[in-house]
């Protein structure tokens, strides 16, 4: 029983730490209000099966690029989903 509790706590803390580090999606208004600086653009491949998967991938890519925020600027559905986002810090 202690092993199950340990695994559950570890998973919970791992999920919290990922969300704490993940780049956050913003709107155009947020970009202007927060005076964010654009540092690049990221694109997902057509491998994601839902819009949420595409956003999660964009967030991960924005993190890797050094960004704290991303703004989805284009999305496409063609049996699968792909998207493009501007990355900001």
UniProtKB/TrEMBL annotation:
Residues 1-22 form the signal peptide. Pfam families: YdgH_BhsA-like. Keywords: Signal. Transmembrane segments: none annotated. Residues 36-89 form the YdgH/BhsA/McbA-like domain. This is YdgH/BhsA/McbA-like domain-containing protein. The lineage of its organism: Bacteria, Pseudomonadati, Pseudomonadota, Gammaproteobacteria, Enterobacterales.
């Amino acid at each position: 029983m202690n092993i199950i509790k340990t695994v559950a706590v570890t998973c919970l803390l791992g999920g919290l730490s990922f969300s704490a580090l993940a780049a956050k999606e913003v709107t155009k208004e947020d970009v202007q209000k927060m005076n964010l600086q654009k540092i690049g653009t990221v694109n997902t491949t057509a491998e994601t099966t839902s819009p949420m998967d595409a956003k999660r991938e964009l967030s991960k890519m924005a993190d890797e690029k050094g960004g704290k925020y991303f703004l989805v600027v284009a999305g496409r559905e063609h049996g699968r989903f792909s998207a493009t986002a501007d990355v900001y810090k």
